[in-house]
Prior knowledge:
Blueprint: E1 3-7, E2 10-13, E3 18-25, E4 32-39, E5 46-52, E6 58-60, E7 68-73, E8 78-83, E9 92-100, E10 113-114, E11 118-123
Amino acid sequence: QVQLVESGGGLVQAGDSLRLACAASGRTFSGYTMGWFRQAPGKKREFVAAIRWSGGNTYYGDSVAGRFTISRDNAKNTVYLQMNSLKPEDTAVYSCAATFGFTIPTMDYEYNYWGQGTQVTVSS
């Protein structure tokens, strides 16, 4: 059974950095795409970034490109989201997701497995 467990959220000030981690377990993830999504109160879930487990190809949402970096550590079965130059509008619950396939989906319904989410709050 696939399990995704996020960690690293917290309260930071605008301009600060934060690194989220998603520990994945339950299967071999080669052939999977791992994604990060976020959802702010009253808003739809938004695609943040994704990475192909094999090959490391990445893709970013427009609102975070150039500030956030997604990466993975094969030995630790963990995906990271390094968030720099944080803004108050980055405040949201950030969730890790996984799907099997050879593309990099950006819609949440294309992902089969989800973590419980971690809160990120950026104060101005």
